[in-house]
């Protein structure tokens, strides 16, 4: 990125004022709140590099994901600070953050009954006897006074070790229905009758003590923050901003150095753009500043600088908190500071970042393909190496893969032609963003087109159907085919491996038909074997059109993958509200005149439902005719035309999610290829084995045998 003289309008100056937080000062009001990332202690180098890039991008404060304080409340995919052995990689993270002048924060946590301690096998603890979250057959035991004293000791030791690791802000985490402090606060979790139960003052006792302990231990040099979910959106069954949520803040108002406030649980806090707008939490958290003199940070998927200013000037927040917007654009603060508003890569609120963490893999982002690749591949969100070949590139298909490939290639300095058969560019993003709730997804297209239209070395060629013959005549040495994929009309997907029985005169539609405006009428069966967002939004679109929709899925819940994006319950509620009937654990077996035969996926028992038409949301097939046509010419003909390589990108290579398509396009721009390589194309974390320590297995075990045979020292 170029160094530019700041030229932002003066109304944004307030965002760059320093803010005092206890004994430390944030250089501006941009605050990357704690967020998980799927890296944690399994990928510590990736975690540290990712946080460092945020600091480089101008965030005044960069905070870790939750950091477990003890093995009795351990969350396998996060970081930990059990003892001094965890300090080296945490210190690496604080060094990366401090390198760019940001404050480093750490979110200390004990997860209580939220986790089953599958790694440590320690019986979980809770304020009262409690089955652990989810479907694990584990019960957390009720804590006694010794346990409470131990929790306080573990937090205090962790705070001291956090200071040793270089952290400037130490959190007490009482949010998202995930940790012991909020479990003690909650009447649902806390049924004690001693001084830690009953009244709110008693239920808040542990939170107060943890804050006081941290202040006494590190408060002279580190700020002590509280992260608190002020409303659980559960009415009288839970904590609410109009009652106990407000009461807790009033009760402890001046005790911490910072209030980090949001909604609980995370499904409420991290709502997707399908179900919420920017700044959607404002009405819940705006009371906090009226009851405390301490600085307040909150979130709301902020992407608009004007909204950020209104949060400050309107008295809602002192610091602009962000998790997802800082993932989509780690350089968001610097771009605002430099007045480069057209360069802001706005979060689309799809929660693919959340899905990566929930799947325990390094986080990815639909908008930012470099997320999670900062250390592994050495990718930077703003800088990309200049071109190192004399290639010219033809990219065919201006969907998410083609747009990103052309943009990044253009940034590198390559001469690029980007052609698409449609007059309106954007491919699947343009079409899908017109479906219910997906409007903000158009940002994937809009940001890239804004960048491309500035590049004199990139030609945009809409309304151009490129044939193999035309590609041969294009005088380009690289041809990237990003022509996308088509939805199948034969029912083949995850459940059906072979085409279904569908009479020739049966009205059968696919998502491609619906997005093109070809809509059925009457009684419509939507068969969703895709299990992500498409089946649900198609059903909603048809219901809006006036169809009587029956939703059928072989899975046990609607849109099951959306459990990873923290929206499944909202998706299922919406589908149940919009559809006449919802059938889970059933597959569409065959279509008959006026009816559909459904089969239970467990018993095979068949039922019949009325149907005038069918929409099959099952599998996809790459549109790779151009690729296969070019490859059929052979190397001699391609070479004679000056083409040294033909590659496929995105859905044309392998149908998937938009984030995968964007990543595929970016990978091609960086490497000029997308083929599988013999060597691993990224760095891995190595674990050094200490062969000097006795093995815990018998001498006949495989590890002992490998040691005797002299096998290597690294995993």
TrEMBL record:
Domain NADH:flavin oxidoreductase/NADH oxidase N-terminal as annotated: residue spans: 15-341
One Pfam family here: Oxidored_FMN
Organism the protein comes from: Streptomyces hesseae
Protein name per Swiss-Prot or TrEMBL: FAD-dependent oxidoreductase
Matches recorded under PANTHER family: 2,4-DIENOYL-COA REDUCTASE (PTHR42917), 2,4-DIENOYL-COA REDUCTASE [(2E)-ENOYL-COA-PRODUCING] (PTHR42917:SF2)
Occurrences of domain TMADH/DMDH/HD second alpha/beta (ranges): 510-594
Entry similarity comment: In the N-terminal section; belongs to the NADH:flavin oxidoreductase/NADH oxidase family.
Domain of life: Bacteria
Signal peptide boundaries: none
Cofactor: FMN; [4Fe-4S] cluster
